[in-house]
Structure formats: structure tokens, C-alpha cells
Amino acid sequence: MTDPDTTNTAAASDTKDNSRVRDQVRAHYAAAARAVTARTGTGCCSTSPQDGDCCAAPITLDAAGFGAARYTDHDRSHLPADAVTASLGCGNPLAVAALDAGDTVLDLGSGGGIDVLLSARRVGPGGKVYGLDMTEEMLDLARRNAREAGATNVEFLKGHMEQIPLPDDHVNVVISNCVVNLSTDKAAVFAETHRVLRPGGRLGITDVVAENHLTPADRATRGNHVACIAGALTFAEYRDHLTAAGFTDITITPTHQLADGMHSAIVQATKPAA
């Protein structure tokens, strides 16, 4: 028979650990936002992730942006410099998320707003793009970038991807760039994503994914949670979570290696039509 006191203690410990990880992630991205303004700091998703960085060894931020290398020169040329500099992802979700004029789009963990602003251009004035982020400094930066870009069809929301502050069946497409791995409750992320998508809606994200043979302990030896490594799901776990949330047409395609057994990957799925 399970001891209730032991169970409650373990649950409280997990909650405390999850809160600690979230605080570390928030602090890291707040520092990254401040670094953009100062033009010095850290980027994300190099080939040698280190503790304390999101998928990257420390680098100097410049006008090119580190994660911006995943975007075309044409895309970058239409963006405010700080939106490019603040690009901290491990891929380009817009390369796989087919956006149509008039679509409503949600970007999970929108950071400095690069994917929101690019999406806004694609969906046009008849569409709408939401950016969701939990870090006030990143939201301030993103809103400033949106004003500079003259984007009027965007809205940045403060909140968590485990509790998305949007109604059911509200968006056509959900995108995200190297963020889902940072969550300590992936099941909630995918359930919420499924909830806010309209029937027939599409998920198109890039994320860090581990090879199936890597245990949680193995992943932790390759980088910590804030480094986008320890919290990454395996390919099988990713597929299982998406299936459990109700998604179909799931594809997970690795694009490049970030560490031994760890890959940046394109994740696509569909919410079945009603």
C-alpha cells in the first residue's frame, strides 16, 4: 500500500523542482532580452550546448543574430534589427508551417518576435498572429519590434504554454521554435495546443529531440534543462505525447545534430477535422 505522506512529499518535491526550472528559464531569457538591447550576450542552438545557455555556447550577439542563420536573407531584410538579433531558436518553423492569407497563428515562446513578425507578413491584414511568452522582458522587446515593423495584426500575450490564454478552436496554426523542450509538463503543452487549434488545424514546430536510446540521465549529461537538452523528449516520446493529445499525421524529421544523440527536428501534426 502506498504511503500518502510519501506520495504527497514526492509531489511537492516535483512541483518545487518544476518551479525552479521555470524560474531558471525565465531568468535566462530575461537576460537574453536585456543583452539584445546591449548587443552582447548569449544565443541559442550551436553545435556545442553548454550549461546555462539555450542550446549554445556563449556568443556575442550582433546584427546578424545567431538563430537567424536559419532564416533567408530576404526574410531577415524585412525585420527590425533587434528581432533578428533576438532570434534564439534551433530552426525555422515557418519553413514547414504552411501559412495562408487570413490564417490565425499562435507562436509558443515567441521571444523577441521574429516568427510572429514573419508570420504576420504571410497571413496578411486579414489574419492574426499571437505570440505567447512568460518573460516580461521578451514581451517588451517583441512589442517594440512589432511597432518598429509597423505590424498591426499581431498581439503578444503573457502566459505559459501549459495554460494558453486563448479560447477553444481559435487558431489555424501553432508554431514554436526550440521552446517545447523547456516545459516541465509536455503533456499539458500538447493538450493545450490541441485545444486552441481549430479542427483541421496544423502544428509546425522545430524543437530539440533525443534519440530513443537516451535515458533522462543520458540527456542530462549532455546539457541542462535551460540548455534545451535535459528536458528534450525522445522521438518516440514526442510521438506518444502528440498521439495522446489527439493529433494525427505526425512526422518528426531530424535536421541537424546538436550534441551526441540530440537533434534539432521539424515536428508536424494535424488536429483532425470535425
How many domain modules?
1
Q: What is the tally of helical segments?
A: 8
Can you summarize the main beta sheet? Answer: 8 strands, mixed
**C-alpha Rg, in Å?**
18 Å
* Proportion of strand residues: 15-25%
Tertiary shape: globular
Quaternary status of these chains?
single chain
Q: Pick out the low-confidence regions.
A: 6-12, 40-69
The share of residues in helices is 25-40%
CATH class designation: Alpha Beta
Q: Could you tell me how far the N terminus lies from the C terminus, measured between alpha carbons in angstroms?
A: 44 Å
Please, what is the average pLDDT? 81
CATH superfamily: Vaccinia Virus protein VP39
Number of strands: 8
**Name given to the CATH architecture:** 3-Layer(aba) Sandwich
- Which structural class best describes the helix and strand composition? alpha/beta
Q: What is the CATH topology?
A: Rossmann fold
Keywords: Methyltransferase, S-adenosyl-L-methionine, Transferase
Family: Belongs to the methyltransferase superfamily. Arsenite methyltransferase family.
Biased composition (Polar residues): 1-12
Organism: Actinomadura latina
